[in-house]
Amino acid sequence: MGNQRKKAPKHKDPVLLGLPDGAIESSDDVDAYITKIGGVPVWLDAEKLPSPKVLECGNCRRPMYLIFQGYVPLADSPYHRVIYVWGCNQRLCMRKEGSFSVLRSHLVDPEYLAAQKKKEEEKRKKEQRKKQQQASPFGAPAGFQLGDLWGASSPSTTPVTTSFASVASKASASAQPPSSSSNSLADAMSKMNLDDDTTTQHVIPPESIVSFPAENLWITEEDLNNMASFGIDMSRYQEYVDMQNALLESAAADEEWSGETYEKQTLPKGVDKQFRKFMERVECEPSQCVRYEWAGVPLLYHQLQQPLSSLAGRCTHCGSPRVFEMQLMPNVLSVLPVAEYASSNTSSSATGDELKAWDVGMEFGTVMVFVCEKDCHPGDVESPSHVREHVVVQYEKD
Ligand SMILES: [Zn+2]
Ligand SMILES: [Zn+2]
Asked: 316 CA to middle of ligand 1, Å?
């Protein structure tokens, strides 16, 4: 009895952090197996693209910018796995439904699948032998079977841990998974243009791709020993808030924009207990852009008004509860040129100069990504899949 006890589940994986680690030349931004912020989305299989809707702002219908792409395969899964996060770079779309989106993509790893099939085949044979033994009058008595103990733990249902860290080291050693060739979107599109008879379901028109420069992420474990218990440096944040206030004040001078969603913000209102906790934790590694913890607990920007589980919701494909996987941190907004790109955006907007001057791009306190707990795979194992997942965005408090 005693030896059947499971390993104590108390062991807690550290939170993994993604830190900026140098620009990726746009000509080199063709790898689906790295983890980055900005850049263009590179698909696991350029022949099977997601619906272009995932790149479109649900509010203004304009193309969104890729903020994050991460290669995050799960342990004991036969799939290569990538998470993509997009955001609309229009300040007017912030705090509105649909201005951020997230996609979870799978591509089967044929080698892993073959190994898994072999394992299952061996198991089946073993069980068959056992049955034959039981059928014989001199065989082992029927009843308790050791096989039952293991039978339930098929790879797709065991709890999974991520190999984010190993992925990072893999990526920096530029080792590519053997089974795959990554394709840039540009390649994919030129291919599609040449070949009208492809079986591709979706075509993503080139004009719908807008992008920031890409920045590689270095993945490291969070070290809480760096936690400063005193003297939180708020200066950088204060600077950011001051800049925002200045912009909002000048915008408020224009009657058209005052009194609507955007009100003058002052620091004290945004600083609650939870926010202090957030800043303290960030101080351990101020350059962090991404926090990753499969099925973990997000670091909230401020307190929630409702339980996290109700915000996370359920998988639209299989109905399983969603779990937290990762979150984007405010430093993303200083690494990516969001304001620069927003103001240089010569859009068709008729309201003209004021709006353009006022648009400082996207903003957020944190963008939390929630994904299907089962990491489900719609359709055939062999064909790539894309599932839209869920984001919860927290902003500065009004
Ligand atoms: Zn928008
Ligand atoms: Zn699911």
From this structure: 23
Which ligand is the nearest neighbour of the Cα of 390? 2
Q: What is the whole-number distance in angstroms between the Cα of residue 266 and the centre of ligand 2? A: 41
**378 C-alpha to center of ligand 1: Å?**
29
Question: Using CA atoms, how far apart are residues 286 and 232, in angstroms rounded to an integer?
Answer: 11
- Cα-based distances in Å from 352 to 249, 260, 340: 18, 19, 17
**Residues 154, 145: Cα–Cα separation, whole Å:** 17
Q: Report pLDDT for 60.
A: 95
Residue 369, token pair as written in the block: 């990504």
Distance CA 246, CA 260 (A): 17
The residue count of the chain comes to 398
Q: What is the pLDDT of residues 84-109, one digit of tens each?
A: 999 999 999 999 999 999 999 999 99
Which ligand ends up closest to the CA of 90? 1
Distance, CA of 92 to CA of 60 (rounded, Å): 9
Nearest to 375 by CA among 328, 323, 326: 323
Phi, psi of 63 (to 5 degrees): -65, 145
**pLDDT tens profile 136-175:** 544 444 433 333 333 333 333 333 334 454 444 433 333 3
Sign of CA dihedral 260, 265, 268, 270: positive
Helices in the chain by DSSP H: which ranges? 110-135, 146-151, 164-172, 185-194, 235-252, 267-270, 273-283, 308-312, 332-335, 338-343, 353-358
CB 294 within 8 A of CB 104: no
18 CA distance to ligand 1 middle (Å): 26
Per the CB < 8 A criterion, the answer to whether 38 and 214 are in contact is yes
Q: What is the Cβ-side half-sphere exposure of residue 115, based on CA atoms within 13 angstroms?
A: 10
Instruction: Please name which of 78, 75, 84 lies closest in space to residue 35, comparing C-alpha atoms.
Output: 84
The reply to whether the predicted model has a pTM over 0.85 is: no
CA of 98 to the centre of ligand 2 (A): 20
Between the CA of 33 and the centroid of ligand 2 the distance, in Å, is 22
Q: Which amino acid is at 5?
A: R
Ligand number nearest to the C-alpha of 60: 1
Give the number of whichever ligand sits closest to the CA of residue 347. 1
